[in-house]
Amino acid sequence: MDIVIIGMGEVGRFLAATLSFEGHRIRAVDRDAARLERAVEHSDLQTLQGHGAALKTLREAGVASCDLVIAVTDSDEVNMLAALTAKQLGAKQAIARVADRAYYEEEGGFAHDVVGVDLLINPQVLAAMEVHQVVRSFGALEIRNLADNRVEVVDIKVAEKTRFLDKQLRDISMPRGALIAAVVRDGRVLVPHGGDHVQLGDHVWIIGDIDAIPRMESMFGMDPSGRASRVVLVGGGEIGLEVARRLGHDGIDVTIVESRLERCRELAAELKDALVLHGDGTDRNLLIEEEVGEADAFLALTREDEVNVMASLLARGLGTRRSIALIHRGDYLGAARDVGLDVAISPRRSAANHILAHVRSGEVRQVVRVEDGKGEILEITVPDRARVLGRSLMYIDFPRGAIIGCIVREDRVFIPTGTDEMLPGDSVVVFTLPEVRDEVLRLFRRAKG
Predict the structure, then answer these.
(1) 350-443: CATH topology
(2) Rounded Cα gap, residues 383 and 364, in angstroms
(3) Fold type of domain 2-121
(4) Is the pTM of this model over 0.85?
(5) pLDDT of 360
(6) Is 175 in contact with 154 (CB distance < 8 Å)?
């Protein structure tokens, strides 16, 4: 595809690197020459310095003949204007990153076909939804809901010795409707087979019916009695407010620590059931006074990565059960895990996953990246005349390095066997390594003729 990306911040650079690596032709636009230079260091792309919403810049970028424009600057207004203008000039599709909910009425973090823009993405809401899901779990490091919330994908770390660790997978009686799709061991992503086994310290990625996932988690040491009832949250920005709203609806006791006094007043007026405190989230005495060590989860959700990491480490040292930090810079994600944080969540990654799903194929509805792109979980809708139709799965030349996790057909979620067939309209959840992703997608495209 011929793609123009406007804005070379964290999201723009990440998308440029990923999409150029996949063979798309990328033109990057930004007013800041230094940002463009950083983007070129990691991607094969063309650059253009200029205002992303200016007619002159858009014409020079070639939006009139491009397949897709992605506007991801720090300004909602620039992104909306750039996307709308690009469409008027002839761009086939346009995506805009927006933070202000006034631009759309959806409850989720994205909306389709709004005022002429094909897709609106709100990274803050997407990140808040991810934080909320992780807090509600009893041990998962990452959670994604697919297939209209009928399928769940979870990443759990095997931290407890259980009777299942020494058994081959073929000898383990798995709960009906769930499957181990991938194992991450020492930074390597493995597609497990029947003769493999799970080791202590592995990260296990499970796909399955949303009701079957808790039973799988229990098998590998997760305690279902460990759901959060009290949460301390540092940072009352838009993400913090959204998370607090969602946790409050779940009946969870929420305490918010916010450094801006005026924002504290706004939060107290908005969140009637939450305790709002004016203070510094890295103040150890304040955390001790508020008994952070007794909290079920500590969430550091400010705009400053350093503050989030430091506050989370202080909370861990005081004894809180789980620490979750928001990490905006992509190069900090690995470091955040290395220093001992339980969960690091990236708004950039949340937004990029939805944009990648939109770019990849008309049939790909969602993308979940595993271990920073070393693997991917795709939700694919099977189209009419797809190459996979009309044959049992055992006769489909599915590439090594990929596995079908589950099939959703109407109200039924099931793990397929070799004798099952796919039908048009099925939602299929597939785990794939990046080197065979194109082969997988080719199988789900419509056959010619």
Answers:
(1) Alpha-Beta Plaits (3.30.70)
(2) 11
(3) Rossmann fold (3.40.50)
(4) no
(5) 65
(6) no
